[in-house]
Amino acid sequence: MAFVDHTQDIVVPFSLEDTFDALKKAIPKIGDFQIDRFDDITKTAYLKAGVSLASWGENLTISLAQAQSGGTAVSILSTPKTGVMFGGAMDFGKNRKNIEKIMKVLSDELNNYEQVSPNQQVAAPLDTEEEIRKVKRLLDDGIITQDEFNAKKKQLLKI
């Protein structure tokens, strides 16, 4: 992660499937982003924000993972399209605000879903090594790109 990247990590008390479904419904409501794609296998959304007076544009990756609590870990990464070069370090807070917009609409949409209670039986999460192997197979099969693999691996290793 570069010093110009912005991140947000939270855990929500909703199942992984419900959270991903809510995310797919929430993002189009914002209107500020071009949806690159939703990856149903890795539970990841890829978005792009265009150039504005306050930003040179950004790429956003929203990754979901099963949390130990039974809820869902939501991780948002915002990376300027230009990196540090050509003004990427100067977004005047726009990229952070975009993350906040995503969190708000996701939170609003999750109000339509039932929360996971702490005593609810939740399938045990796979260990990190096994998860990385699964994602590596997706890379080897050409389903995801090297960059997507690297991002998911970093998320799983909590780097």
How does this model look, in words?
With 159 residues, this protein is an alpha+beta fold. It folds into 2 domains: 6-119, 2-Layer Sandwich (Alpha-D-Glucose-1,6-Bisphosphate, Chain A, domain 4), CATH 3.30.530.20; 126-159, no CATH class. It is 36% helix and 24% strand. It is built from 4 helices and 5 strands; from the N terminus they run βαββββααα. It has helices at 16-30, 94-110, 128-140, 146-157, and strands at residues 6-12, 33-39, 44-49, 58-66, 72-80. It has a 5-stranded antiparallel beta sheet, with helices on both faces. A hairpin with a 4-residue loop joins strand 2 (33-39) and strand 3. It is globular, with a radius of gyration of 16 Å. The termini are close together. The model is unreliable at 83-89 (pLDDT under 50).
- Helix fraction, binned, reads 25-40%
CATH topology of the largest domain: Alpha-D-Glucose-1,6-Bisphosphate, Chain A, domain 4
| Class from helix and strand fractions | alpha+beta
Count the E strands.
Answer: 5
Beta fraction: 15-25%
Overall pLDDT confidence: 79
The H-and-E topology, N to C, reads as: EHEEEEHHH
Computed over alpha carbons, the radius of gyration is 16 Å
Query: Could you say which overall geometry the principal axes of the C-alpha atoms support?
Result: globular
- What is the number of helical segments per DSSP (H or I, 4+ residues)? 4
CATH class categorisation of the largest domain: Alpha Beta
Instruction: Identify the CATH architecture of the largest domain.
Output: 2-Layer Sandwich
Task: Give the total of domains.
Answer: 2
Poorly predicted parts: 83-89
* Biggest sheet: strand arrangement: 1-5-4-3-2
End-to-end distance, in Å? 9 Å
Superfamily (CATH H level) name of the largest domain: START domain
Largest sheet: 5 strands, antiparallel
